[in-house]
């Protein structure tokens, strides 16, 4: 019976550890049964050795980031409603609003570095295409016209309701694709 044991080496660490990773994995042509993977703890990325270089071993991953604004049974009010810390680099690909009932709302999103926390209106990322409900209970925007969609690892996001009517609970979800 042929030996079907997979010889493998798994490594973890930061970028410096990955750069110094030894032994250098052999080419798959000379050792097709060897599998080498490395998990980079700097950016939470899994890499595989392709015989000549480390390549990202996972495909694009979309992740939802969201907040719920709760009015406690009464209509929501304007103003700052919450903050998020984003520990990984990503790109916003969509925004979704889900309300408990038909109503109207306009939400602005502000972004800044952790060091400059808290973000202010001067840090808006939505341009003139703010997430909006108008006589509806749901909306989704995948175009994000004029938005600053890139988020660096360690950025903070602040959510501000500019205007609102009728809605007592609102969920805002940013769909993001990890870029690291």
Give your account of this protein's structure.
By secondary structure, the protein is mostly beta strands. The chain folds into 2 domains: 7-56, no CATH class; 62-178, Jelly Rolls (Sandwich), CATH 2.60.120. It has one helix at residues 15-19; strands at residues 7-13, 34-40, 45-49, 54-56, 62-70, 79-86, 90-113, 132-141, 150-151, 155-165, 169-178. The strands form 2 sheets. Strands 5, 6, 7, 8, 9, 10 and 11 form a 7-stranded antiparallel beta sheet that branches. Strands 1-2-3-4 form a 4-stranded mixed beta sheet. It starts with 6 loop residues before the first strand and ends with a strand. Mean pLDDT is 84; it is low at 1-7 and 25-33.
Largest sheet: 7 strands, antiparallel
User: Which regions contain 5 or more consecutive residues with pLDDT less than 50?
Assistant: 1-7, 25-33
Structure summary, number of beta strands = 11
The whole-number mean of residue pLDDT values reads: 84
Please give the CATH architecture of the largest domain. Answer: Sandwich
What is the CATH fold-level name of the largest domain?
Jelly Rolls
What's the end-to-end separation, in Å?
43 Å
Outline type: elongated
- How would you name the oligomeric state of the polypeptide chains in this document? single chain
Summarize the helix and strand pattern as letters: EHEEEEEEEEEE
Number of helices: 1
């Amino acid at each position: 019976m042929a030996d079907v044991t997979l010889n493998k080496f798994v490594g973890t660490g930061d970028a410096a550890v990955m750069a110094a990773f030894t032994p250098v994995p052999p080419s798959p042509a000379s050792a097709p049964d060897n599998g080498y993977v490395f998990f980079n703890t700097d950016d939470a990325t899994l890499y595989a050795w392709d015989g000549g270089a480390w390549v990202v071993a996972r495909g694009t991953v979309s992740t939802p980031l969201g907040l719920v604004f709760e009015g406690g049974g009464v209509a929501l009010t304007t103003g700052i409603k919450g903050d998020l810390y984003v520990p990984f680099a990503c790109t916003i690909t969509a925004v979704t609003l889900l309300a408990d009932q038909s109503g109207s709302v306009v939400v602005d999103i502000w972004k800044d570095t952790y060091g400059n926390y808290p973000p202010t209106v001067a840090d808006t990322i939505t341009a003139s295409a703010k997430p909006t409900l108008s006589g509806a209970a749901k909306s989704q925007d995948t175009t994000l016209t004029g938005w600053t969609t890139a988020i660096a690892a360690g950025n903070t996001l602040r959510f501000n309701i500019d205007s609102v009517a009728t809605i007592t609970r609102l969920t805002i979800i940013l769909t993001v694709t990890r870029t690291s």
